[in-house]
Write a structure and sequence with these properties.
Elements lengths: L4 E11 L2 E7 L2 H4 L7 E2 L6 H11 L5 E10 L3 E9 L4 H4 L2
Antiparallel strand pairs: 1-2, 1-5, 2-3, 4-5
Length: 93
């Protein structure tokens, strides 16, 4: 059986007056040397924004939940659980 569920840490922070979110642990979404950040819109739920980014980058089938891990004055960190996209070879009969 292929394990399809996984999780990733996502941080929301403000830098130079701009709110951003950052993925940790997925090279494609965290960028070279962990320097890739995505704009964060306070008027849209974190769940929707994370799922949209992951879908656009072909990194998930869907996001199932977002749970807070920790929060301080400078950042909030969340655990995002998602269903990975299954490889076609894993789905074949």
């Amino acid at each position: 059986m292929v394990e399809a569920r996984s999780s990733v840490a996502v941080s929301v922070f403000s830098r130079n007056g701009v709110k951003a979110l950052h993925f940790s642990g997925i090279p494609k979404l965290s960028g070279h040397k962990g320097t890739l950040n995505f704009p964060f819109d306070e008027n849209v739920s974190l769940f929707v924004q994370v799922e949209k980014i992951m879908l656009a980058n072909n990194m998930c089938h869907n996001v199932t939940r977002v749970d807070p891990l920790r929060h301080n004055e400078t950042e909030s960190v969340y655990s995002v659980t998602y269903n990975r996209r299954l490889l076609k070879s894993a789905v074949r009969k």
